[in-house]
């Protein structure tokens, strides 16, 4: 993995002499409680399926996603992870100019540069706790006549999120395409923040989700996009290979999207541990904490007694890895991000941070 996408556990384990499994990786935004047991058990008991082709229409998988998202089944586009859909959508829309909400994930800029798109940035302000006013954003888009708005919702790394009604308002108040990356929306209240159902009525809205983070399945490479624009769907599907989702990913998706016990348990545990981490981090006097709707919390070393990179190095011998956020555009060397892990790991993090800071 590149430096922009978290820690390379293989390199760190060689350098420090730890097994990669010993590290508590607070730089990785993946659900620490693992994937759906029902889905895993089904796969392990039906391995003969690898000798079959997947359903080319993925009917049952789309039915599960539709039920999970509360969206029209016909509006679902499947992809090999969210990244493939980000690339496919940007290539299809081919915008002349795009507005990126920053700080944000670097992959958006990378894909826009491939098509020589003019890139503008709307910087969320630290003094506002990185909250963004929807009407101010609309004015910026309309005044600059941008053809695409890219929104990570909740935003990585700040944790800010627009409500679905705000996303709808932005869509109805501009002529721009809106790409909403909802990679982390399941860690928030979906009934408030998810724009999945909004895609049924807003045809210039494209919502992207993956299964790597909430469902803890980065290895199966399963993502999906939602759009009610038939032209966009047709154009994207033209460039996607037949059977682009392998049968294991397809079957896991069919089960885990409707595994209510797994979903409810994950939401409960992650919400509880986020509350704990936010409270505990807030008690460290030299650290400022920013509200978050994701499964991570952005922090800043207020007294500048050390940089985030220096703090990261001090934590690694304790088998703890945090995310130095200096590589995010708009954040300086004193910002770091921690993800929510299991209770015992979260408490060890607080203990070490308190001792160091």
Architecture blueprint of SSEs:
Elements: H1 9-16, E1 24-25, H2 37-45, H3 59-69, E2 76-79, H4 82-93, E3 97-102, H5 107-114, E4 118-123, H6 134-144, E5 148-152, H7 164-173, E6 177-181, H8 190-193, E7 205-210, E8 223-226, H9 230-238, H10 247-256, H11 260-282, E9 287-289, E10 296-301, H12 308-315, E11 320-321, E12 323-324, E13 335-339, H13 343-356
Parallel strand pairs: 1-11, 3-4, 3-5, 5-6, 6-7
Antiparallel strand pairs: 2-8, 7-8, 9-10, 10-13, 12-13
Helix pairs in contact: 2-10, 3-10, 4-5, 6-7, 11-13
Structure notes:
The protein has 2 domains: 3-30 and 261-356, Aspartate Aminotransferase, domain 1 (Alpha-Beta Complex); 48-258, 3-Layer(aba) Sandwich (Aspartate Aminotransferase, domain 2). It has 13 helices and 13 strands. It has helices spanning 9-16, 37-45, 59-69, 82-93, 107-114, 134-144, 164-173, 190-193, 230-238, 247-256, 260-282, 308-315, 343-356, and strands at residues 24-25, 76-79, 97-102, 118-123, 148-152, 177-181, 205-210, 223-226, 287-289, 296-301, 320-321, 323-324, 335-339. The chain has a 7-stranded mixed β-sheet with strand order 2-8-7-6-5-3-4, sandwiched between helices. α2 packs antiparallel against α10 and α11 packs parallel to α13 (343-356).
């Amino acid at each position: 993995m590149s430096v922009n996408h978290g820690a390379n556990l293989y390199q760190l384990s060689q350098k420090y002499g730890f097994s990669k499994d010993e590290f508590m990786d607070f730089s990785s935004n993946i659900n620490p409680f693992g994937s759906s047991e029902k889905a895993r058990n089904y796969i392990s008991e039906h391995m003969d399926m690898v000798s079959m082709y997947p359903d080319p229409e993925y009917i049952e998988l789309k039915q599960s996603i539709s039920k999970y998202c509360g969206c029209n089944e016909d509006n679902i586009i499947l992809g090999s992870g969210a990244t493939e859909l980000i690339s496919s959508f940007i290539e299809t829309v081919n915008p002349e100019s795009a507005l990126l909400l920053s700080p944000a994930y670097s992959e958006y800029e990378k894909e826009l540069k491939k098509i020589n798109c003019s890139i503008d940035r709307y910087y969320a302000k630290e003094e506002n706790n990185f909250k963004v006013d929807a009407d101010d954003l609309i004015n910026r888009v309309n005044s600059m006549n941008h053809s695409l708005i890219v929104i990570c919702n909740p935003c990585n790394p700040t944790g800010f999120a627009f409500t679905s009604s705000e996303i709808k308002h932005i869509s109805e108040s501009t002529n721009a395409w809106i790409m909403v990356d909802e990679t982390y929306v399941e860690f928030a209240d979906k009934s408030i923040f998810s724009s999945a159902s909004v895609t049924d009525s807003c045809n210039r809205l494209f919502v992207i989700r993956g299964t790597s983070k909430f469902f803890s399945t980065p290895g199966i490479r399963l993502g999906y996009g939602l759009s009610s624009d038939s032209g966009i769907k047709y154009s994207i599907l033209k460039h996607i290979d037949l059977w682009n989702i392998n049968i294991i990913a397809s079957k896991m998706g069919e089960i885990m999207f409707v595994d209510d016990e797994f979903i409810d348990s994950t939401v409960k545990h992650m919400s509880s541990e986020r509350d704990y981490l936010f409270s505990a981090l807030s008690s460290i006097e030299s650290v400022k904490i920013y509200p978050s709707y994701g499964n991570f919390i952005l922090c800043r070393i207020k007294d500048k007694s050390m940089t985030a990179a220096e703090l990261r190095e001090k934590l690694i011998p304790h088998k703890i890895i945090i995310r130095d956020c200096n590589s995010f555009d708009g954040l300086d060397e004193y910002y770091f991000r921690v993800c929510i892990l299991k209770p015992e790991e979260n408490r060890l993090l607080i203990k070490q941070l308190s001792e160091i800071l």
